[in-house]
Amino acid sequence: MGCAPMGHILYDEVMRYNPKNPYWFNRDRFVLSAGHGCMLQYALLHLAGYDSVTEEDLKNFRQWESRTPGHPENFETPGIEVTTGPLGQGIANAVGLALAEKHLAARFNKPDMEIVDHYTYAILGDGCQMEGVSQEACSLAGHWGLGKLIAFYDDNHISIDGSTDIAFTEDVDKRFEALGWHVIWVKNGNNGYDEIRAAIREAKAVKDKPTLIKVTTTIGYGSPNKSNSYSVHGSALGAKEVEATRSNLGWPYEPFHVPEDVKKHWSRHTSEGAALESEWNSKFAEYVKKYSDEAAELKSIITGELPSGWEKALPTYTPESPGDATRNLSQQCLNALAIVLPGFLGGSADLASSNMTLLKMFGNFQKDTPEERNLRFGVREHGMGSICNGIALHSPGFIPYCATFFVFTDYMRASIRMAALSQAGVIFVMTHDSIGLGEDGPTHQPIEHLASFRAMPNVFMFRPADGTETAGAYRVAVLNKKTPSILALSRQKLPQLPGTSIEGVEKGGYIISDNSKGNNPDVILMGTGSELEIAAKAADDLRKDGKAVRVVSFVSWELFDAQSESYKESVLPADVTARVSIEAGTTFGWLKYVGCKGKAIGIDRFGASAPAGKIYKELGITKEAVIEAAKSLC
Amino acid sequence: MGCAPMGHILYDEVMRYNPKNPYWFNRDRFVLSAGHGCMLQYALLHLAGYDSVTEEDLKNFRQWESRTPGHPENFETPGIEVTTGPLGQGIANAVGLALAEKHLAARFNKPDMEIVDHYTYAILGDGCQMEGVSQEACSLAGHWGLGKLIAFYDDNHISIDGSTDIAFTEDVDKRFEALGWHVIWVKNGNNGYDEIRAAIREAKAVKDKPTLIKVTTTIGYGSPNKSNSYSVHGSALGAKEVEATRSNLGWPYEPFHVPEDVKKHWSRHTSEGAALESEWNSKFAEYVKKYSDEAAELKSIITGELPSGWEKALPTYTPESPGDATRNLSQQCLNALAIVLPGFLGGSADLASSNMTLLKMFGNFQKDTPEERNLRFGVREHGMGSICNGIALHSPGFIPYCATFFVFTDYMRASIRMAALSQAGVIFVMTHDSIGLGEDGPTHQPIEHLASFRAMPNVFMFRPADGTETAGAYRVAVLNKKTPSILALSRQKLPQLPGTSIEGVEKGGYIISDNSKGNNPDVILMGTGSELEIAAKAADDLRKDGKAVRVVSFVSWELFDAQSESYKESVLPADVTARVSIEAGTTFGWLKYVGCKGKAIGIDRFGASAPAGKIYKELGITKEAVIEAAKSLC
To answer: Considering only alpha carbons, which residue of chain B is nearest residue A161?
Structure first.
C-alpha cells in the first residue's frame, strides 16, 4: 500500500508498454524486487489492460493454478518480467535487464535510428537492501554506469521482525553514493506524487549513473490501526481493518470493483500501447532495410530463433585430438558459439583466466564499451548469477553464461535455483570440479555439489568427460532455453575418449564401449567427467581378463531419466546387476544406476590439500578400485 | 608479501597470545580472510613459536596430511582460528568472534575485574570486499558497534583477472563509513610500519565502532618483475623470480632458513605468552572466588563442558500433548536450552516471529545491550551463518543457532558447508520446510534441500515429526559440537505421534509402530517430518485390511547410516522388499532405503502457490498414495 503511488505513476504515466503484447521487445521493464507486495503489481497489470490478470485472477490470489501466485512468477503471468520473492534477486535481475539494454543499444543503435531504448525500473524494500546479493549487483550497476536503471527504495522502516532499527542502521544513501549511484530522497512517499514525478525526471537526466530514489513511506498506508506496523508485512489486514481502511481512504466500492471513471482513465493504455509498438515496428522495418546485417542479429536476439547451422560452429574432436582440460575445451566452445550466436555473452567472477571463459574476439563490457561481450563480474558469484538471469529473461535470444569454481555454486545457489524455476536458460560454467584441483584443498573441492544439483528440478547438470562431450553439453544447453545448464569441468588434462558422442550426450547416459553380446555384459562400469577415463581403463584391463564389459557415460542424469524405458534397458539391462560407478564426488544418488547389488565408488567426506594424483590415490578413486569392485561382482 | 608488514606488526608487537597454548581463552583472535595468502600466517606462527608449524611443516606446504594446507584450516593447524579461503567468510567469522567477545565481556566483566578482554583482527582483500557476505556481516558489525574488531583491508588493486578497476571501482572507504565503521587509510603499506602502528593505536581508541584500516600495498612486493601484477595472485613466483626477489630485498639466506637474530627476536613470545596466560589464570582464580556463579557459567563456555543434567530441561511430550507445528515445538526447546546452557544464543534473519526463535527470557543483543542473547541478523542469511560459525569457534561452549526459511539455506549454503568443514557446531533452525507452507509458492517451498544436505559431509540433517523428535534433534545437536545440525521444521500443525522417541532420533531411523512378528512385516512404510503422520495413518488403514505393517521414521539419514549392520537389519530387513517412503521433497536418494523394489513418493518438480492442503493433494503426497503403493507391493 505504501508503494501504490510509485506503482501508479510508473504504470499510468511513465512506463512505455503494450498491454496486449506483454513481450513487445522495446517495452520498459519493471521488477518488483519486494515480491511479497505482488498484489499491487497484479492490480496495476489489471488496470493497465493486460489480459493475463482479469478480475477473476485477482479474486483467485494465491490459489491453485491461478495467474496470481503469492509471489510474482514470470512463467505464470505475462507482464511479470522475472520471478521475485527471495529478497535481493529482483534488483539483481533488474541490473541484468538494464545491462542487456545498454549492450543492445550500443551494438544496434545508429546515429539516425535509436532502435533499442527502454528503461528498467525496480522497487526494492529494506530486505532487498540488506541482502548481499543486492550489494554485489548494485556495485556492478554503479561500475557499469547503468544510467537507465531507476530503482525505488521503499523506505518504510518496518521489516517482519519490527522496526528496521533493530538490525539495519546503515546509511543507505551514502552506501549507494559510494557505489557510484545517483541518489534522490523523496521524503513523503505516501502521497507526494509530484515529488516522485520530479525524482523520475531527475533520474532520467542523469545518464551515466543508475539512480536510487529513496521513497520514505508508511507500511500499510491508509490502514487506520495497522499502518506503520510490522503486522502488515506478511499478513493480511483482516476483514475489519480492511473495512476501516476503505472508510479512512473514502473508498466506498465493493472488493475488486473498479469504478467506471478509473476504468476509463486507464483504458487509454490499450490504444497507446498498441500505438507505441506499431510505431516501433515501423521503425524496425526501416532498420531492417538500412542495416540488414545488424537487423538479422537483433532479430535473432528478439525472437530467440537460432541462426541456421549454428551447431556447425561447435568444435569437433576425435580420440586422436590432443588431450586437454575440459575447462580449456569449454573455452573453445564458448569462443565458437560467440561468433555464431548474436545473444551469446558472459564472463566470470574474477576467475576468467582459471575458468577459461574469455571470448577472445571481444573486449570487456564496461561503462564506455558496452557493445563488448566479456562481462567482468568481480568476486560476486551470487550477483553474477542473478544478473545473468535478468539478461536471459530480457529477450529470448540472449544466452548468458557465467563462471566460477564449481564449489562456489554454494555462493550462488539461490540464483541457480531461480534460473531453474523461472526458466532462464543461463549456462553456468563451473570449473575445478573435484579433488582434481589438488592443492587448494577442501574449501575449494566440490564433493556434494553434483548430487545437490541433480536433485534440483529443471536444471541440466552436465559433467563432460572430454571435448566431444563438452561440445555436446553446450549443444543441449543452447537448444534448451527454458532449462539452465551447469557444466562441471576439469582443471586437469583429460584424454579424448573413444566412443563419446554428441548424440550420446543428448541421451544423458550412453554406452561408450562394450565387448559384450546380446545386451548382456558381465559387468557395467559407469562414470562421469574425469572418472570416465578411469572406468574405460579398468574396462580395458578386465577385458584382457576375458570379461565382457560395458562402459557407460552418465554425463547428465536428467537427460537419461527422460529417455524411454526401452532405451534405458538397452543401456542398463535389468538382468545385469554387476554394476560399478566411479565419480570423484559423493556416492549419494548413484544407487539409482548401480542398483541394489552394484557398487558406487566415490568420496563421502571432505577433500584435502595435496597434489591431485595423491588425493585420488588416497581417497581410492582409482582404476584398481574399479577392477576390484567389478571382480567382486562378476 | 604485501601483507607482511601488517602480519609482522600484529604477531610481533600487537597481539596477545600464548604460542604454547593456542587455545588460551583470552587470546586476541586473528583471521586471514584472504586465505590464499596463508603461507604468511604459517610463517608468522612458526616465528612466534607455535609447535603446530615447524620448519618441516613449512616445507610440506600443500602436501597430503600436512599442517600447512593450501588454505588455512582450523581443524588442521592449532593457531588458525577459523577456516578461510572462500572469500568473505573470514571477515564474517571475525564479526562473530568480535561479537562473542563483546557479549562475554558484557556478561562477565566486573567493575573490579576485566576477565574477558581481547581484540579480533582480520586481513581482507579486494575479493572479500566484493563478496556480499562481507557486506552483510560488516553492516551488522557497524550496527552492533563492535569496537574491538580491527580489519585490515589489503588494498593492492590486483585481483586474479587483473586490475581491480575492471570490476571494482566503488568507494570502499565511504561504504564502510556508511556502515558505521571508523576508517583509516595507510597510504604506504609496503613499508610504512609506523603508519600501521599509528593506525592500530587509533583504531583501539575508537571504542564504539569497528575500524577498517585500508592499507595500500603492492601485490608481490619485493618481486622486481612480478610485483603489482595479477600473475602473483594465485600462482607461485617461480624459482627465477624468487631468486630475483631475494636479491632485490637483500635476503641472502637459504629457503626456509630463519637467521639467528630473527629467531632470537621472536623467541621472547614464548615466555611473554606464557606470562600473559599465567597472569590471566591468576585473575580468573580470583574471579572464581569472588563471582562463583558467573565463573561457573564462563568456565562452561570456555571448556565446552555441558552443565550436568542439562538434558532434563528439554521438554517432553506424549501422544496426548496438543499437536503443534514443529517450529513452535522448536521454540520450546530453544527457550528451555537457553536457561541451562550458558553459551546458547542466536536468532533469525528477520523471521524471528515466523521461525519462532525468540528467547523469551532475554532481550536483544544490541550495541548498548550486548549481554543479551537474541541476535537480530536482519535479512542477511549468508552473513548470519558465517557470523555464527565465528561464534561457535570462539569458545567450545558457545552453541549458536540461526534461523530462516529452509528454502533460504540456498542463500547461506557456503556458510553451512564451512560449518561442516570447520567443525563448527552451529544449529541451523530452518522452518517452513516444504510445500506445507502453502500460498507463498515455489520460491519459498523447499524441494531438493533435504537431499542436498544429506549429500553434504559432516552435517546432521534432521526432519523431526513432532515434539519428541524435535527435542531429540536438539539433544543430538547440543551433544555433537563438531558437527553442525540443520533442523527442518514445519509451518503447519502436526500431531504428537505414538512411538516417537529421543532414543530413536539418536539412531536416525527407527520403528515407531509395527504389528508384524519376527522382523518380517508385509510392508515397511517410512517417512520424515510432516509426512510421518501420513505414513502412520496409511499403516492404520492397511492394518485394518489385515496387513502386517511397520512404520519407520527417518529423522536423520546420517545417524542411521552410522548404525551397526545388525541394527539396520532390525529396522530394514533385507528380505522385506515391499517398502514405501513418503516425503514432501525430492525422491532423490530415497532408493537407499526403499530398495530396488520399493516406491518413493515425493515431489520431483517445483511447488505451487495455493493452500497447503490443496498442494499436498494435487502433488500426490497423500495417505491414499501410500496405501496404493503399498498394496501394489504386497
So the answer is: B350
